[in-house]
Specification:
By secondary structure, the protein is mainly alpha-helical. It is built from eight helices and three strands.
């Protein structure tokens, strides 16, 4: 589609494409939902103007080009960003269907998934923070923390501190196997570090999110 002579967005096209291609899951969701390529495996945004954007995707081994139009013409970059985010939400809902727990056709993201629905997550965080604080600040003036320290004893607190640290470290090392080996080429360096830190803090609930994600990537590569 030819662009208008005076397009206020075209000059920002390269910058916008670089930003969106830094979020490959979102761009792929555009191709699967708006482009009607539900089995596309990779997508790249190539141009943006005031009327829409162009995407190149890989579908069954063949490169396809598609055009996605905005609902109305854009006159500022801020409008484009808002529209892209709104369309990302629309694509996510459309690809997943009514069940938010069902990924459906929504592509996986390598970003960390906070296991906030798992009660062990919050218990683990509370235990970790309490043990660490009392280990390094035993003279705290907090009545609750002093009661915990007097009830359990300094030696027990130290044992909990060592045990939790070792356990979470082992779980974090397991996460390295799934991000760097099982999910190789899917997880980037930043993703690997973020998953490591998440699991070091919240423990195995993070692994319950990571392991199925990594195994899906290995299965897709094998296919």
């Amino acid at each position: 589609m030819p662009r208008r002579a005076k397009d206020p967005i075209a000059e920002y096209s390269v910058r916008l494409c670089e930003y969106m291609n830094g979020h490959p899951t979102i761009v792929l969701s555009y191709a699967r939902y708006f482009g009607e390529y539900p089995e596309a495996s990779k997508a790249t945004m190539t141009a943006v103007d005031q009327d829409g954007f162009d995407v190149t995707c890989l579908d069954h081994g063949q490169e396809q080009e598609l055009r996605v139009t905005f609902r109305h013409s854009m006159h500022a970059v801020s409008q484009v960003k808002d529209a892209l985010m709104a369309m990302a939400k629309e694509a996510k809902t459309g690809l997943r269907g009514d069940d938010p727990n069902n990924p459906g056709l929504m592509p996986d993201s390598p970003s960390v998934i906070w296991p906030y629905n798992h009660p062990v997550t919050w218990i683990s965080i509370c235990v970790v923070l309490t043990a660490y604080y009392l280990e390094f600040f035993p003279n705290t003036t907090s009545p609750i923390l002093q009661w915990i320290l007097q009830s359990l004893g300094a030696s027990t607190i130290h044992y909990i501190y060592i045990s939790v640290t070792l356990l979470h470290f082992v779980e974090s090392m397991v996460s390295l196997y799934f991000t760097a080996v099982v999910g190789r080429d899917f997880f980037g360096p930043i993703d690997i570090v973020q998953w490591f830190m998440l699991i070091f803090v919240c423990g195995y609930p993070g692994l319950l999110e990571l392991i199925p994600l990594a195994n899906r990537q290995r299965k897709q590569k094998e296919e």
